[in-house]
What we know:
The protein is mainly alpha-helical. It has helices at about 5-10, 30-90, 130-140, and strands at about 15, 25, 95, 100.
Amino acid sequence: xxxxxxxxxxxxxxxxxxxxxxxxxxxxxxxxxxxxxxxxxxxxxxxxxxxxxxxxxxxxxxxxxxxxxxxxxxxxxxxxxxxxxxxxxxxxxxxxxxxxxxxxxxxxxxxxxxxxxxxxxxxxxxxxxxxxxxxxxxxxxxxxxxxxxxxxxxxxx
Length: 157
């Protein structure tokens, strides 16, 4: 039985006269039993939540560990690549297991961004400074297009 079904059964344990609206009977034993079952389900859900949270932390820790190892391996590979480039000085190298060649490429270098024509510039999309806006709204300033919304955040420890 899920929590919704338990709540429905608890409501059914209270007998109400349809005509007068008076309570004519309450099955207190059944209500107590259902309340214990409900409390047990809530406890198990909260414990399951805590386990998932702990798993999330463990996964993040592993992810961070592997990300660090990835950075180290990537940096070592780049270092070896730069060393090979310095040793080969643009000459190709071939063997049965590896082939090192060079290709030409072009890239644009910005010397002075102030002198670049506007048609070649990119501008970032505007974003709202929510911290400053929240302070202003709380101070009584009317900020068009924004409002503060109050939320309820459950905490399970």
